[in-house]
Write a structure and sequence with these properties.
Length: 173
Amino acid sequence: PTHVWNPWPQVWAWINTSEPIAAGVSQWQTRIGGSPQNVTIAGDAVIVEYRTSIEAYGLGAAVKLWGSSADWAGVAGEGSDAVVVTGRLLTKGYQVLDPRTGIAKRTDTQASAVWTYRTGIIDLHCAKGSDCELTDWDTKGNARWRVGTGGIGFVLDAANPDLPDTNPIGAAG
């Protein structure tokens, strides 16, 4: 024995406690099935994104609302207009789900990329790589505008991908 104190057993016991860390502050606490990649609030649901699945819990209680197999997810909209956008890696298209029920409100099978925002969803469709179009959708599935982009020159997959040679709005340069 080295006679050196090891704090890790006590630290892990504290982290894995069944009581809230800040007693009296949280409304609820629940154990989830793994290490999440992202946790987001969508309307009155808490969306937990894992590597290959999504789960939703009620914001007012620790009740699991639904679960779905998906490789990526993003939340668009806010309040009662919020939706969950999910899809598969290396697969075109995405689904727009109701955050409380997990039921698909809209399905797209051809989009190469999708971006989620507080105000809605923008997706990219390309025909033969040289004829691309961006479409802005509200969270109810209504197209607000479309614009041609010409050829992008590469394949995009998953949610909120970076585009080459772009800058945030308002960026100097």
